[in-house]
Amino acid sequence: MRVPLEEARFEAHIRRMTTIVRCTNCGAEYRRTEEKFLVPHTGHANCKVCGDTLESWLENTHVPIFELVKRPDGTPE
Is the pLDDT of residue 76 over 70? Predict the structure, then answer.
């Protein structure tokens, strides 16, 4: 039995979990989410304020994305 596309449930959708992280060097706050890829990625994310490394990953299919939300002086981005 076929279900019309508009009535189909997309249960394979994975919700993104969002966390707030702080740069350990300057205190800038970031919204961290993850993007899922089929092919493993290697890389790192740096703080946009001070350049310190926020996170590194090696051959991972779940790659973190960082969005600056608050600078160390408390001003929103």
Answer: yes
CA distances from 50 to 1, 33, 37, 64 (A): 57, 21, 28, 19
Per DSSP, helices labelled H in 1-77 are none
Measured at the alpha carbon of residue 34, what is the angle toward residues 73 and 69, in degrees to the nearest 5? Answer: 15
One-letter identity of residue 25:
N
Q: Which of 62, 68, 65 is closest to 22 using CA atoms?
A: 68
Between CA 54 and CA 26 the distance in angstroms is 11
What span, in angstroms and rounded, lies between the C-alpha atoms of 67 and 20? 9
Q: What gap in Å lies between CA 8 and CA 65, rounded to an integer? A: 30
**Structure token pair of residue 58:** 């090696």
pTM over 0.85: no
